[in-house]
Structure formats: structure tokens, C-alpha cells
Amino acid sequence: MGFANLSRKPTYNEYQLLRGLTAGDTLHYSYIFKEYYNVLCHYAETIIGEPGHAEDIVQDVFERLWQKPYAFEDLRHLKDFLYKATRNAALNFLKGAQHSKERQAKFLHEQEASGTEEDLEIIRMEVFRVIYREINNLPEQCGKIVRMSYIDGLKNEQIAEALSISLQTVKNQKTRGMKLLRMRVSPAVITLFLLFSHHS
């Protein structure tokens, strides 16, 4: 589906990236890590509901990638590996945690009930990956407020209280942040982000 084109200025082309990764090049590995770490943590957290353990899961996935580089056919193959490995590791974590079995059953039931396909999940995570990158390029407070609102799903009042700022400041920074994002990514990505985000 050409997800590589969602980002405006890729550092490496697909051939360079996959060749370097297969060869165990640390620069290419670091690039992949920076590109996907945040969004994979977000993905794992949506499954297990625990940020700390989600980070551990994603770090283990990248450790597997580093210790045993795979010969990926294309960039889509690499993305499939990262998302599926994270999903499977998160579900395995729930299997091993007695208190989480109910959450595991709920997650699997929701996926089955909604008819969510893996391709749709990959699209959602790719959209979030692009947005995460651009949010990190926003002014600090602006990016933090956009993340708390659209990704964490907090209300304006909750954000204002958490950051000890006025409600109007939150509203202004959200408006500013979305305006900047619309200037930096395509309308299609913004539309999908708003569709997939927690923001109402």
C-alpha cells in the first residue's frame, strides 16, 4: 500500500534500509527503532493495558530483530514482522498473567466482533507512526497536549489539571498543534488519525 510514502522525507530508501538491517548495521537498526518504538509501545499497551510492560515487550521484539536479522523481502514484510511479533508477545504476556486473562479474552472478542483485519490494524499503526514522528517535532507543550488529547484520550479539563495550565491554553495549543500537523502530513493521514484516535 506504499506506507513508506506517508513520511515526507525518509532518511533511507527501502533497499538501503533492508540491506543495512540484514547486514546488522547499527545505523539502520537505530533508524527502525526510532521509527517504530513509540507506536509499537502504543499498540502493545492497547492490548495489555500496562505501559511499563508494553515497553518491555517492544524492547524484546527489537532485541529479537537485532540478535537474528531477518532477510525481509520488502518494507511491508518488515512492518508485518514488527506488528505481529508485538501482538503475539502481548497476548503471550496476558496468557502468563492470571489477572489479565479476562483482558485477553475481551481483546480477542472485540477483534472478532468488529471484524478487524490485520491489514486494517497495520494501517492504523502506520498512521500513528507518522503522527508520532510529527508530534515529536512540534513545540514541546503543544506536542504534549496533542498527544494527551488525541492519543491518550484525555479531556481538556484533565489535561489542564495535569499540566497546571488554563483550559483556554489547552484549547489554543490543540488548535495550534492540529494546524501544524495539517501542514506537515497529508489530509488522508490526518483524516485517518482523527478516525482512529480516542478524541471525540
Automatic annotation (TrEMBL):
Record keywords: Sigma factor, Transcription, Transcription regulation
UniProt entry tagged with the keyword Transcription regulation: yes
Domain of life: Bacteria
Pfam families: Sigma70_r2, Sigma70_r4_2
Keyword Repeat appears in the UniProt entry: no
Ranges that cross the membrane: none
Domain RNA polymerase sigma-70 region, residue spans: 33-98
Leader sequence segment: none
Family of the protein in this entry: Belongs to the sigma-70 factor family. ECF subfamily.
Protein name: RNA polymerase sigma-70 factor
Organism: Chitinophaga silvatica
